[in-house]
Amino acid sequence: MTESLPTRDRLVAAMADLMRFQGYGATSVKQIVDHASAPVGSLYHFFPQGKRQIAADALRSTGAAYIALVPVLLDPHDDLGDGIRAFFDAAAEDMERAGWANMCPVGTVAAEIADTEPELREIAAGIVSSWIDQSTAYFVGRGLDPDLARRVTVMALAALEGAFLLARTLRSTESLHVTGETLAGLVSHLPLTAGT
Amino acid sequence: MTESLPTRDRLVAAMADLMRFQGYGATSVKQIVDHASAPVGSLYHFFPQGKRQIAADALRSTGAAYIALVPVLLDPHDDLGDGIRAFFDAAAEDMERAGWANMCPVGTVAAEIADTEPELREIAAGIVSSWIDQSTAYFVGRGLDPDLARRVTVMALAALEGAFLLARTLRSTESLHVTGETLAGLVSHLPLTAGT
DNA sequence: GTCTATATGCTGATAGAC
DNA sequence: GTCTATCAGCATATAGAC
User: Which nt is closest to the CA of B29, judged by C1'?
Assistant: First the structure.
């Protein structure tokens, strides 16, 4: 983490990276600054409210980055089911290569802080809500009825996060491949509204 | 937590309870003994290796308790899909009533400790593996082909854990109802092997 | 087995020189 | 904006009387 980014950005990236592996509680301020090759003072200069504030920033920036993947990974596939399968297979490959870190800190952290860090929980809830809204809109654009699109989104997101949890715990990609395959079969047979 | 259980059992129950809400890292030894109305010395008397050891015990005992729910909740339903729907709806009701604690500490804790507590991760992996094996065997007993039974199990477990995560983050039962309903539709149309 | 007092180290956070 | 030295508090764990 000695990239030539501004200090502030290096700190946020380091926090996001550490949270993917360790979650929030197990990540110490000292680890963050070491990982970002920055002095402690700089962290409190940019983030006067300390660890909680930099965690909020890291969640927000990665949350925004991940929702952008949906169109990127699904657009190339005419059949939505094929797109979903490719999405889950890509996640499996990335996860194994990254040493079983979660893809996104939001999933790792959300359960951990849901009752102990109310402010961070609300931020995580906002990110997840916007994921659901944007992904629903994408599926509507691909021809699904709005209500069905939302249900498909919620189902797929739950399956993805759960499969990440199992993969991480078991150190196996089976859960990602199986859920991706099953969802693909489901989605390929959904009715599309006229004109798509 | 002033039940008339032996001290050792009260300590394990307190740890399991706290981990459901807070996870592992945010639960302190002081909280455990306070919640169990026991002195610190007793914890280290029964669990010489301290917090990590009592966490392992709490995970094991709740892991065993939860797999027992599968036949209890599914046996009454002739149609497997109906059983799955009832399972998820029951989980949603319990979760909301319990103030959005996770049903089982294994899910809350697994992601958090996967890279920081190798011994606990292996214990969690063992529990999850045995869930998958036992649940697969149950579905085979209900007439599914073994390979299909395993895939249904993995899919359902991933969806359940993911739906828990979303419900906890968003403080809404929507994810549990939607995933339960979707899985139910899927499972109701699976082919059964002859003779069931 | 129960309980209290305490040791040791690490935590998040701050002050102040440069 | 950068960096170091340091604070006060809490963490896990232990010692030893009862």
Answer: D12
- pTM for the whole thing? 0.95
Q: In Å, what is the CA distance from B62 to each residue of A111, B58, B131?
A: 18, 6, 12
Q: Look at residue A26 and tell me if it is in a domain.
A: no
B35 C-beta less than 7 Å away from strand D: no
B82 located within any domain:
yes
Amino acid symbol at B193: T
The answer to whether the beta carbon of residue A42 comes closer than 7 angstroms to any atom of strand D is: yes
Number of domains present in the structure of chain B:
1
The list of chain B residues with pLDDT below 70 reads 1-3, 194-196
CA distance B90 to A42: 49
A196 found inside a domain = no
Q: Which residues contact A27 (CB under 8 A, 6 or more apart)?
A: A15, A18, A19, A51
- For A135, the token pair is 């992904």
Look at residue A41 and tell me if it is in a domain: no
* Domain extent for A96: 59-188
Q: What is the CATH number of the domain that holds A181?
A: 1.10.357.10
Torsion angle of the four alpha carbons A30, A36, A40, A44, in this order, in degrees rounded to the nearest 10: -110
Query: Which pLDDT score is estimated for B194?
Result: 61
Tell me how far CA of residue B182 lies from CA of A159, A196, B11, B85, in angstroms: 11, 24, 39, 9
Q: Which residue of B has its CA nearest to A118?
A: B169
**Size (chain A), residues:** 196
- Choose among A21, A115, A166: nearest Cβ to B21: A115
Average pLDDT, chain B: 94
Mark yes or no for CB contact B165/A26 under 8 Å.
Answer: no
pLDDT tens-digit map of B70-84: 999 999 999 999 999
> CB neighbours (10 Å) of residue B102?
23
The confidence score (pLDDT) of residue B193 equals 79
- Residue B84 distance to chain A (closest CA, Å): 15
Straight-line distance from CA B2 to C1' D14, in Å?
A: 26
Question: Whole-number Å distance, CA A61 to C1' D9?
Answer: 32
Q: How far is CA A40 from CA A15, A37, A52, B9, in A?
A: 13, 10, 15, 43
3-class secondary structure, B38: coil
B64 touches chain A (CB under 8 A): no
